[in-house]
Amino acid sequence: MGFPYDCCKSKKSVSQEDQDPAENRNGDPNAFDTAYIAPDNFEAPPREILQQEQQGRILKVSNLRKKYDNGFKAVNGMNIKMYSDQIFVLLGHNGAGKTTTISMLTGLLEATEGEAQVFCVDMFNEMNTVRKFMGVCPQHDVLFELLSVEEHL
Predict the structure, then answer these.
(1) Closest residue by Cα to residue 127 from 111, 149, 143
(2) Which residues contact 19 (CB under 8 A, 6 or more apart)?
(3) What CA–CA distances, in Å, run from 88 to 18, 20, 144, 152?
(4) What is the pLDDT of residues 8-52, one digit of tens each?
(5) Domain boundaries along the sequence of the chain
(6) What are 77-123's pLDDT values in tens digits?
(7) CATH architecture, range 45-152
(8) Minimal CA–CA distance to 105: which of 140, 58, 70, 60?
(9) Which residue of 53, 64, 94, 107 could cross-link 78, Cys pair, CB 3.0 to 4.6 Å?
(10) How far apart are CA 93 and CA 108, in angstroms?
C-alpha cells in the first residue's frame, strides 16, 4: 500500500550539538531506541521493520512532554516508534499518561514539548494533513443524538 504524501524529502540539517540524545549518533541505527534504556533491555528490530523506518513509514515520537499550568507532569519525555502492520499497546496504571499521550497525538491536547511524525508528516504542525489518514476511538462514547451514523464517521 502506497502512502499519498512525499515522505521525508526535505529534512533539516541539524548540528551535532542540537541533536537530541535519542537521535542517530555516529551512524548507530539504534541510537534512538537505546538512548534511555539499558542495552540488556533492547532487541534490535528485524530488517523489514528497519526498512519501514528508512522509508518513513512509521510514527515516531521524540521527547514528548505535557506539563499542566499547576505543574503536574502528565507525560515526561516519551520516546516511541510505532511500525506499520504491527500492534502497539500503551499499558500503565491510572494517571500514567496514556490518554494524555493519545490526546496530544490526535490534536485534542497541545504538547508542552517534543516532536511527533507519522509517515514523515509533523503531527503538531500539520494536524489537518494527519487527520486525513489517522483517527482515534476514544475510551468514552462520543455520540451525538442529532447526528446519523454516517455523519459520525
Answers:
(1) 111
(2) 25
(3) 30, 24, 29, 26
(4) 444 443 344 444 544 555 666 677 777 777 888 888 888 888 899
(5) 45-152
(6) 999 999 988 888 899 999 999 999 999 999 989 999 999 999 999 99
(7) 3-Layer(aba) Sandwich (3.40)
(8) 60
(9) 64
(10) 21
The grid coordinates listed for 152 are 459520525
Residue 73's identity, in one-letter code, is K
Residues in CB range of 116: below 8 A, 6 or more apart = 59, 60, 61, 62, 64, 104, 105, 122, 123, 124
The three cell numbers of residue 53 are: 523506518
Strands in 121-122's sheet, in edge-to-edge order, are: 73-83, 58-67, 113-118, 121-122
Specify the residue for cell string 521527547. Answer: 63
What is the predicted pLDDT for the residue at 27? 63
The amino acid that residue 27 corresponds to is: G
